[in-house]
Amino acid sequence: MSAGGRETSRVPQVAAPPLIEAQGVSRFYSTVSGETVHALDRVDLRIADGEFVCLVGPSGCGKSTFLRLVAGLDPCDGGRLTLAGHPVLGSSSDVGVVFQTANLLPWFTVMANVSLPLRVGAGRERSTDTRHIQELLSIAGIAEFANKYPYELSGGMQQRAAIVRALARDPKVLLMDEPFGALDALTRERLNVELLRIWKASQKTVLLITHSIAESVFLADRVLVMSARPGRILREIPIHLPRPRTLDETPAHPDYVPLMTEIRALLYSEAA
Amino acid sequence: MKTDASTGANVAKPAQNRHTSAARGRRVVINVGVFVLLVLCWIAAVRGFGLRSYILPLPGDVLKALWAGIAVPITDKTGFYLPLWVTLSNSALGFLLGSALGLSLGSLMAEFRPIETAVMPYAFALQSLPKVAIAPLIVIWFGFGNASKIVIAATLTFFPMLVNSFTGLRATEPERIDLMRTLSASRLETYFLVKVPSAAPYIFAGLDMGAVYALLGTIVAEFLGAQAGMGVTITQLQAVSDVAGVFACLIVLGATGILLHLGMRSIERRVVHWTERSRS
Question: Which of the listed residues A119, B48, B196, B233 has the most CB atoms within 10 Å of its CB?
Answer without folding.
Answer: B233
